[in-house]
Amino acid sequence: MARNGFAEFLVARRAELRPADVGMPEGRRRRTPGLRREEVAVRAGVSADYLARLEQGRDTNPSVAVIDALADALLLRGDERHHFSLLALASGNESHCPGSESAQEKVAETIQSILRALQPTPAFVVGRRLNVLGWNAAWADFAAPLGLLDGDGQPNLAWYTFVQPTARQVLRNWSEVADTFAAALSRAKLRWPGDDSLVETIDALRRHPEFAARWKPHHVGAPISGLLQIDHPVHGLVQVPFETLDADRDQSIIVWLTDQAQMQTPGLRLVRPAAVNE
């Protein structure tokens, strides 16, 4: 039986904690990292057999009291605790959760208008899977030489970062960016556990060791933001702060806060693939 999101969260969080985190001695040598199932069960006041059924997805109807006890046992606070509770309550009906169906990945005209209005600041729209759904001309100018618009398919930030060799050449802080996008997909999986397209994207990426090492199915982080340190083929070394603005339930606008002078280098050819929204 396949694990549901709640079961994945339980297993991942238990593996992440150490005995010292919960005031327990390390004890004899452990075959696997993290707390033992029996240790979590004792802390939560449930049987180890029942916890095993939850972790294996064989029991999908924990009570509110059990959910709270497990959250306490696993030292969950804030957003993580909230998501843990939502996953638990939906564990038997993930495919019927509101918003869990596959997203409509068409950019609304109002959002396209925002992209155009942001010109000459590079801006683009991403969906649940970090697919780039639309962008303005300034972003196309800057992104095309990086290889982000290579190929016939829809650009995807995570796929570019983990799979395309060009990414390691141009992203000087590649590891930090990789962490950011892995966390973004983990957060999306928590929010839309029944989205088959999202799950397929994550499963495909998990076949790549660098993504698999960063994959934490229970990670709850802030919206995508940070700094790109880019060795740009045209502009040279560029630092690009970026921020995310929620556009609707499924899509976000990402703005690259570049120095406008960097966008006016002569000879940078404007690339207009078929999907570009100007």
Automatic annotation (TrEMBL):
This is Helix-turn-helix transcriptional regulator. It comes from the Bacteria. InterPro entries: Cro/C1-type_HTH, Lambda_DNA-bd_dom_sf, MLTR_LBD. Residues 34-81 form the HTH cro/C1-type domain. SUPFAM superfamilies: lambda repressor-like DNA-binding domains.
